[in-house]
Specification:
The complex is a heterodimer of chains A (about 25) and B (about 200).
Chain A: H1 6-25
Chain B: H1 2-21, E1 28-36, E2 43-52, H2 58-61, H3 68-86, H4 104-112, E3 116-118, H5 122-130, E4 134-137, H6 139-143, H7 148-155, E5 160-166, E6 169-175, H8 183-194
Antiparallel strand pairs in B: 1-2, 1-6, 2-3, 4-5, 5-6
Helix pairs in contact in B: 1-8
Classes of the chains: A mainly alpha (about 25), B alpha+beta (about 200).
Chain lengths: ~25, ~200
Amino acid sequence: SRAVPQARKASLARFLEKRKERVTSA
Amino acid sequence: SSTACFNQETLQYRLQAVIEGARESWTYAIFWQSSVDAATGASLLAWGDGYYRGCDDDKRKLRGASTAADQEHRKRVLRELNSLISGAPPPAADEDAVDEEVTDTEWFFLVSMAQSFVDGAGLPGHALLTASAAWVAGADRLASAACERARQAQAFGIQTMACIPVGGGVVELGSTGLIYHNAEITGKVRALFTSGT
């Protein structure tokens, strides 16, 4: 995971979290 | 560092403000961060941050281009990425509570994180190089664009792509709808990304 640059990792975490919210609220 | 985190947070707010405050229905916004490759001196645009809003007709668009095999692949990648972020081992396919199909636009946004543009390549690179907005509206125009990213966007259901050069990089907006060039949104993006707040 160290190879994943921090910006991408932060964006990815946010995207996955929001996706989980979208899916569970649907 | 705290500075990097702060910048990352303000980036997210700005991207969100662009999308949620727009009159048009944009699917996502990405900030491509500009830098110079220390080894080669080449100009580089790489992922800075992104805001994904999605589209109202995600469900309808879902089966556009993706096959069952595509979906299997996307879900597996998402499970692995979830595991990478959470630090927990990836669940088996049938154990995953959240296993909704991954839409074309979600997938396009996700793969964008791994992309970069060197020396004016692609629509974002062109916008940076010419210091003017690049706006492509219409699936046929995206499909025939001299830019791999634009063609890829079209293949994943995007109909409009706009790249607006701002301080430190380029803001890219994408929509599954047809949105013609307007100065309001380019002005808004420039204002939000040059104010420094």
